[in-house]
Amino acid sequence: MVGIYVGATSGYSGKNMIAMGIGLKLQKEGYRVGYMKPVGALPQEKNGVLGDADAFFVQDILGLSENPALVTPVVVDQDFKMKAFTGKCEDLMPRIKTAYEELGKDKDVMIVAGSGSMYSGKYCGVDGISVVKSLGIKSIIIDRYVKELNYDYLIAMKELLGEQLLGVLLNDIPPVFKEELDSLLHPFMESKGIKILGKIPSDPLMGAIKVADLADRLGGKVITAQDKSERVVENFLIGTMQVENFMTHFRKSKKSAIIVGGDRSDVQLVALEGQCQCLVLTGNLYPNDIIMTRAEVLEVPIVVVRDDTFTVAKKMEAILSRHKLRDVIKIQHGSQLVSSIIDFQYMKESLGI
Description:
Blueprint lengths: L1 E7 L6 H14 L4 E4 L2 E2 L2 E4 L2 E4 H10 L5 H4 L2 E2 L2 H8 L7 H11 L5 E5 L14 H8 L2 E7 L6 H11 L3 E9 L4 H14 L4 E6 L7 E2 H7 L3 E2 L9 E2 L1 E4 L4 H10 L3 E6 L3 H9 L4 E5 L6 H10 L3 E3 L4 H14 L5 H14 L2 H8 L2
Parallel strand pairs: 1-7, 1-8, 2-7, 3-6, 8-9, 9-10, 14-15, 15-16, 16-17
Antiparallel strand pairs: 4-5, 11-13, 12-17
Helix pairs in contact: 1-2, 1-14, 5-6, 10-11, 11-12
């Protein structure tokens, strides 16, 4: 049995997607795949046993149903934090190692998923670097492009992990950055001994969210076309400009939520007639009867929220960049992306499988 740790330079980088993609691909090739998430930051109870919400989800996708106490031996709940921050944090690594060995008994490959960044959990000795070294396994580190890549961090990881760093995956790469990455940064990182296992391009679907979930996250209410609240939003457009300018931008924005003040019926009507994914009306202002009727006829959900337009736009940005991978269509799409882009041949050779 061999193990592979899926870590990242920061939270919300795509660890679940990569773990599921690798697991499903290896299962398809006939390998017996196990999974664990040593440190869980999303406490959830299932059948009276405490585990981690992400771990439960990934297990379901991989068709596994192991004991949550083994899959996530360390759960960061309030009780854990109290102990950790009052100096009563025990040595948790033996518990993690025992769980790893137990889960891996009848497996060919164990996928060990990280939580947060490679340094998350350092305050209690359960950070990704410590887990990789203690279990004696190799690691893949994901770096998600957010304005730039964390190449300093990746070089530091190479120095810390040495041969235990199997390689890195660069995620969410925008088209405008591809040439610089291919011609400059990729060769530079490989010259530092960092293997680039794959470069995953930006994909709007992977950041998409259902209208119903969006309303919930914004603390809003869907007041029209509730039966269409399963449709997905991939991005957003703020409708604070003049109608003529708004129309120009709107034509270029597919599958967008339009954020607009509840008193801007002119922009609301243009967005509705243009078949936007949904309208998000700010300031807790309800639309007039004409807008309500057109929204019902055109089957466009309207979400009313309390916050002002600027606050909602900031929240939307955070939601779309951090939305959890939960929809079946996104899982299938993400898994196909992972299996087609990762250098599996190199990965399997390095793991000796």
